[in-house]
Amino acid sequence: MGSDSKELLGIEPLELRFPFETKKQISCSMQLTNRTDDYIGFKVKTTSPKKYCVRPNSGIVPPRSTSDVIVSMQAQKEAPPDMQCKDKFLVQSVIVAEGTSAKDITGDMFTKGSGNVVNEVKLRVVYVPPPKPPSPVREGSEEGSSPRHSLSDGSNLNYQETRESDDPPSLAAVKAQKDQEGFTSETSALISKLTEERNSAIQQNNKLRQELDLVRRDLSKQNGGFSFAVVAAIALLGILLGFIMKR
Predict the structure, then answer these.
(1) pLDDT tens column, 174-200
(2) Are the C-beta atoms of residues 128 and 18 closer than 8 Å to each other?
(3) pTM metric for this prediction
């Protein structure tokens, strides 16, 4: 934090979690919430400016409102050892005058020499496996990671200005990517259930066809007319067969 203990912006999450896949650009979002009655200017910095694009990388959050920021990681050729990432982000915020626009936000506003009280929040980057069917490994992987808010070791890191992407993904696309992890397991279970029901229906259909064929063979051996019981049995089998075929 800066010299002021007052929190200007609430930031969620404090970990930027990327479902890591090689040779693919991946994005996640963070939400900046201004619970004060002041206009708050912000700037996002990172220790790896060539690796990430941030949109917007600076701006204004009006009083009692929220702004979304999309962080995009450029496609990586290979995964890091043990999926560990040392990259960090820094969100700086200051109180600005009403009427200040996003274009008025400059790096000088967040320096010690500006005279402004600068609030700082550090965020860590975490790589997680891409969405896949449920696995018991999830809890263990989180236990093996470093503590969620262990940010005191980043005081000497070199945070630099972030770049804005020319063609960033929409916020809806980022949220859809995040929700896909939950949808995958539900879809897999539904497909499995429907497959079992289909196989069961096919077996019942085949069994009824065999029984119907047996009845027809018995009737063909008789020289007399049809009895009421036989006609009723054939009708019932026909109805059941038609019902299963509709399923």
Answers:
(1) 555 555 555 555 666 677 777 778 787
(2) yes
(3) 0.56
Between the alpha carbon of residue 147 and those of residues 123, 132, 143, 153, 231, the distances in Å are 12, 25, 9, 12, 76
Q: Is the peptide bond before 168 cis (omega within 30 degrees of 0)?
A: no
What's the pLDDT tens digit per position in 94-131? Answer: 999 999 999 999 999 998 888 899 999 999 999 988 76
Location of structure tokens 């969405």: 131
CA distance 88 to 18: 13
Alpha helices in 77-160 (DSSP H): 137-143
Q: Determine the Cα–Cα distance for residues 46 and 54; give it in Å rounded to an integer.
A: 10
Pairing of strands 119-128, 39-46: unpaired
Report how far residue 220's alpha carbon sits from residue 82's, in angstroms, rounded to the nearest whole number.
Answer: 74
CA-based R_g, the chain, Å: 31
